[in-house]
Amino acid sequence: MKVSLNLEKNMKFKGISTDGHITHFDSHKEVGGDDSAATPMEVLLQSMAACTSMDVVSILRKKRRTVEAFDVLIDGERKDVHPRTFSKVHLKFILKSPDAELKDLNRAVELSQTTYCGAAAMFRAAGCEITYETEIINT
Hints:
CATH superfamily of the largest domain: K homology (KH) domain
Order of helices and strands: EEEHEEHHE
Strand order of the largest sheet: 1-2-3
CATH architecture of the largest domain: 2-Layer Sandwich
Oligomer: single chain
Helix content: 25-40%
Number of helices: 3
Shape: globular
CATH topology of the largest domain: GMP Synthetase, Chain A, domain 3
Largest sheet: 3 strands, antiparallel
């Protein structure tokens, strides 16, 4: 896997994948950015949520459960000293489905978090505590 990163202006960077997909990064104004895009640490949280969400939705669909909507709310806490890595992350998984049960969602999340999600495994390897909760909205 290879990607590139280019400085656009001030502290705004553009990341480009080999397939041409673009991700923008910026920093807050007080450190020289324009606050025009997510910070790298925000993108890390979003990336972990995306990684585990893709697992969970895939598992639910393989179980032939309908996924009408799927959301993850992420709350990350960082250490006060440098490097300011994440010390705790809490994920709240919310599934809207007419036929899935809470046990289906819980099992899919458990499998993702313990077996499949490489991003969550990287957070854990760095010493970050990951907790989660699940909610299902039956339609």
